[in-house]
Amino acid sequence: MVHPLSFAKALAWCWGVGGVLLLCGRAVWALFPKVLQAFEHPLSPLQIGAGLGWLGFMAYFEGYRGFQKAFAPRVVARTQHLAQNPRVLELLLAPMFAMGLIRATKKRLLVSWWLLIGVSALVLMVRLLPQPWRGLVDAGVVLGLSWGCIAIVAWCAAAWRGLAIPIETDLPESQGSAA
Question: In the structure, how many helices (H) and strands (E) does the chain have?
């Protein structure tokens, strides 16, 4: 018989990290056709330059600084905490817990929810852009999200090898102590 705590740990990891990866992966899957559509149009030198600049910007700010240095390790650290301290409601909402959308410090809740709202608003605005501009913008987003998925998997591997995740979990009772 499987021990309930072992099941809770597995559920925390699979649903917490897996749910975040599914969310990001679904966005990549949905946006990639729009990226390909951009290249069905002849691109001007301005569009090529803007597209390359945007890719560089998104790689650094969304991929490296946003995902690799902040979001991905926090998702893993919070999931690790949930696996060690399972609570039923948080297990059911594990992706939201991992992303800092529930049971977090006031600052983390504000930052996480405002980022979610801001990104959602940007998504709606980008949909209004004509091709090839929409595809060029989406190419940067696909790059950043793909980088983020790889970073999450890499941080999971580090955690499973026993390495400490060097980021605050932003849990309200710890006031941000490391996991």
Answer: 8, 0
CA–CA separation, 123 and 48 (whole Å): 22
The contacts of residue 125 (CB under 8 Å, 6+ apart) are none
Polymer length of the chain: 179
Kind plus residue range of the DSSP H or E element containing 95: helix 94-98
Rounded distance between C-alpha atoms, residue 93 and residue 111, angstroms = 19
Give how far Cα 7 sits from Cα of 23, 86, 158, Å.
23, 10, 21
* Amino acid present at 172: P
> What letter represents residue 129's amino acid?
L
So where are the chain's domains? 4-39+55-160
Q: What is the DSSP string of 77-88?
A: HHHHHHHHS--H
50-83 residue pLDDT tens: 999 999 999 999 999 999 999 999 999 999 999 9
Contact status, residue 113 vs residue 101, Cβ threshold 8 Å: yes
Beta partners for residue 178, in sequence order = 168
What distance in Å separates the CA atoms of residue 10 and residue 99, rounded to the nearest whole number? Answer: 18
Cα–Cα distance, 179 to 77 (Å, whole number): 6
